[in-house]
Amino acid sequence: MVGKGIHARASAGNATNRHRNSRVIAPQFCRHSTMSPTTTELKHRRTPSEVTEFSPDDIDLSFPDRKLVGIDGKWYDVTNFVDKHPGGPVIEKFIGKDATAVFHAYGHRDFVLKHRKPVGKYVRRYNPIDVAFEKLERDLRAKGFFETDWTWYVGKVAVVVALFVIAVTLVTCFDAWYCHYLGAVALAFFWQQNGFIMHEFMHSQLFKDFSKDKYGGLFFGTVCFGISAHWWRDEHILHHALTNIVDVPNRFIDPQMWEGTWAQNEKMFALFQTRLQYYAIKIQHFTFVPCVIFVGRLEIVFDSFILQLERRWQEWVGWALHWVWLCTLLSHLPTWREVAIFYAIASSVQGIFHFQLILSHYCKMFAHLHEFHEMSWYRYQVQSNMNIDCPLWQDWYYGGLQFHIEHHLFPTMARNKLRAAAAYVQPLCEEHGIPYDSCCFTTALTKTLSHLKVAGSHFKLDPR
Ligand SMILES: [Zn+2]
Ligand SMILES: [Zn+2]
Where is this region: Disordered (predicted)? Predict the structure, then answer.
């Protein structure tokens, strides 16, 4: 969550061009023809049963101007759909690739492909890990792990309302400064709990339909939490699909892992170019904690509405409503000094929330884009994640994100089922020799700081 402001997003077309220059393979579909039919002709001529087989390597020559994505052994032309994709720009990173695992992980329903005619076929690489996890996903779905427990959510909303009432009461009904500052702590937990609920709406966990879920995200994320829920979702979906991915030639990195002031992995080193960044990275193990706590909230609030130039009008309305209620609350404080301290306390306490989102990744596996596409998607999700051990009664505090491995494997799974899902995932990982990392919060923090220290000590400025 803290990782924002990715400064250079790659165009998937660049990868396509590289590919085109490096291979000369006759497209199989025009083997018996002296002149290739146009893509439009192909689209209208073929039926699914007539589609021709070709591999990802052949795509550039077969469809030089089209963007194809592979799902369940079939290529789909998404050229005109990329800009309309409800999940945002993530689809561009799977052009010319087999996107089956990530497609199903996001709970896309069959109707998404119902009106799309495949333009070709390919043979999916058999991977026993993918097969095992896909089976587990089906089994857990059958057991109801993906269904919304509305009663449970009524309880969550009641907690959110109670926190808001406590914050307002402490600010408006008491004169003592310490009551006001306790109100700031209540406000921080109010923001934190809203952040969790926004996260779940923006994963379409509740209604399973983004056209409905987005309004929940807008309310809990933008109006209550105070950040652009849609902007955050675009980055978060990229984070899920391309966790800890670095693509240096296209200057792309998992946007929620990017900060201009620290380098978690040597694969990122080439992205840092200034002397100021050099000095910041050398001391990153000292700056990490205070930056996340004291600057985390301010940064995402600023980025989501200013740097990113959010254009969705609903977001601006939600943002205005957020500042109306917040300023009304702050207006009850007696001095500007108390206003500043109140907001600083609330932001800093809520800053701990940012830890929960990034601590699970920083010391884990990072990969270049080409390495990622060669691995089992499920294995990669486990190895780029770490769980935080905590007792059941602390689940409210971590918001399900302590089961980060399970959440990344099954992003649309209900929060209140993640703990039970871990009991299935861990043995499956052991069975397939996949390291399953789970430790308490202090160990996770220690591991992360040690990792940042070592990475910083290896850092050298790229002479380019
Ligand atoms: Zn994550
Ligand atoms: Zn998520």
Answer: 1-24
Query: Residue 333: pLDDT above 80?
Result: yes
Q: Is the same domain home to 113 and 187?
A: no
DSSP code for 219? I
Q: What is the pLDDT of residue 320?
A: 92
User: What is the per-residue pLDDT for 49?
Assistant: 44
Q: How many domains does the chain have?
A: 2
Q: From ligand 2's centre to the CA of 48, what distance in Å?
A: 34
Q: Regarding predicted confidence, which is higher, 353 or 191?
A: 191
Tell me how far the alpha carbon of residue 360 lies from the centroid of ligand 1, in angstroms.
Answer: 7
Query: What pLDDT shows up at residue 72?
Result: 81
**Does residue 303 sit in the same domain as residue 359?**
yes
Single out the residue in 90, 106, 125 at which a domain terminates: 125
Are 25 and 92 contained in the same domain?
yes
Looking at all shown ligands, the one closest to residue 381's CA atom is 1
Among 85, 110, 125, residue at a domain's last position: 125
Asked if residue 323 has pLDDT above 80, the reply is yes
DSSP 438: E
76 and 222 within one domain: no
Please state the φ and ψ torsions of residue 53, each to the nearest 5 degrees. Answer: -85, 135
Same domain, yes or no, for 250 and 350? yes
C-alpha closest to that of 354 among 150, 171, 130, 191: 191
Domain limits at 18? 12-125
Side-chain-side CA neighbours of residue 68 (13 Å): 29
| pLDDT at position 133 over 60 | yes
Statement: residue 198 has pLDDT above 60: yes
CA of 394 to the centre of ligand 2 (A): 19
Q: How far away, in angstroms, is 255 Cα from ligand 1 center?
A: 11
Residue 173 lies in a domain: yes
Q: What is the CATH number of the domain that holds 118?
A: 3.10.120.10
pLDDT at residue 10, as a whole number: 34
Residue 225 clears pLDDT 60, i.e. is over it: yes
Give every CB contact of residue 144 below 8 A, 6+ residues apart in sequence. 417
The β-bridge relationship of strands 387-389 and 367-368 is unpaired
Q: Tell me whether residue 29 is in a domain.
A: yes
User: Is the model's pLDDT at 63 over the cut of 70?
Assistant: no
pTM here is 0.81
Determine the distance separating the centroid of ligand 1 and the alpha carbon of 408, expressed in angstroms. Answer: 7
> What is the DSSP annotation of 349-368?
HHHHHHHHHHTTTTTS--EE
Spacing, Cα 240 to ligand 1 middle (Å): 6
